[in-house]
Amino acid sequence: MRQPLSPPVDAAWHWMKPDLQIVDFWLSRVNRLWSTHEPRARLVGRHIEADGITTLTLKPNRHFKGFKAGQHINVSVEIDGVRHTRSYSASDRPQRDRLIRITVKAIGSGKVSGHLQHLRLGSVLPIGQAFGTFELPDAEGQCLLLAAGTGITPMLSLLKAQAALAFPRPITLAYWARTRREWVQADVLHAWSKLHANFKLRLIATGESKAEDNELTGRINPTHLQDCLPDGERAHALVCGSNDFVSAARALIEPTALSVQAESFTPPVRDAQGVVEAGTVKVTLLRSGKTVEVPRGQALLDALEAQGVSPAYGCRMGICNTCACGKAEGSSRDLRNQHIDEEPNHALRLCISAAHSDLALEL
Ligand code: FES
């Protein structure tokens, strides 16, 4: 935090502060990575990992404070004059060179993923500080990592950090992809499993009809878990994948796991717990002076976007805080636990909150 300055200097600071944007503008004319305060990164490498999956290497400026294995980083791109922000897990461990690697899958309708995959080397992107607490637990015991699709990315980060320490604790990775061509860094994973007795690997292709040596097929099921944890062994489970995968994995592993951490890269399906919210409410956007009508019970981020309002967002899962904005009036519902909040809120996360009554938002 900035130390208090002497009154005249402090007054000068406050007078100058609004001009930092202008300073940034001129700095970025000299070097687009330069900023007085904003973390930015230059795209310095691109590597095709598998079908439709690319790893991008980003070199951050000095405002980026680094990341821990398993954390997410928000990355912004400008497309047709509009800034879009998405959260990506780092797919590498933190290293001295401070480089960030993110692994991006092209999704049919995904504007940002497609744009990132074809971005020119040397391009500069605004990034956020790393966030998230997806990590191997300190408690003793083996770990079981269950990853599906691009859910492998935080697992790769965690595993690379463990590989750098020669796998000091027993870890099993079970990794589902639709076809063999979609496994990311399977050669690295195989090499670790041959080199380190503490690392076991199970590759599972859901869309292949026949399993090859040491492979399994089909969607996650009790036989897969039995194969990973024979003889009733227990483990700390970390799960990452689509919402359906995470729900299925949780249901199977939770009864016996030592602990479970799960992250989904699709927005969580909200359990309405019998709550029926009907009708619409008015949402007043105090900064833009607009008023829009949105359905009660729908995530405010989705509802506002449907009305042509574009709040900033990253994860759409309530993790990154990018969508947080002030609520001046009205009551909102937390879609994760159905809790109603009637008080003004300084940081209402639009992606996991719905309007319960008319609202006034600092947007
Ligand atoms: S978009 Fe990340 S918390 Fe809402």
Helix and strand topology:
Elements: H1 7-16, H2 20-30, E1 40-50, E2 53-60, E3 72-79, E4 82-89, E5 100-105, H3 111-117, E6 124-126, E7 143-148, H4 152-163, E8 171-177, H5 186-195, E9 199-205, E10 215-217, H6 222-228, E11 236-241, H7 243-253, E12 259-264, E13 280-285, E14 290-295, H8 300-306, E15 324-329, E16 332-334, E17 340-341, E18 345-349, E19 353-355, E20 359-361
Parallel strand pairs: 7-8, 7-11, 8-9, 9-10, 11-12, 13-20
Antiparallel strand pairs: 1-2, 1-6, 2-5, 3-4, 13-14, 15-18, 15-20, 16-17, 16-19
The structure holds FE2/S2 (inorganic) cluster.
What would you say this structure looks like, in words?
This protein has 363 residues and is α/β, with parallel strands linked by helices. The protein is built from 8 helices and 20 strands. The structure holds FE2/S2 (inorganic) cluster. FE2/S2 (inorganic) cluster binds next to loops.
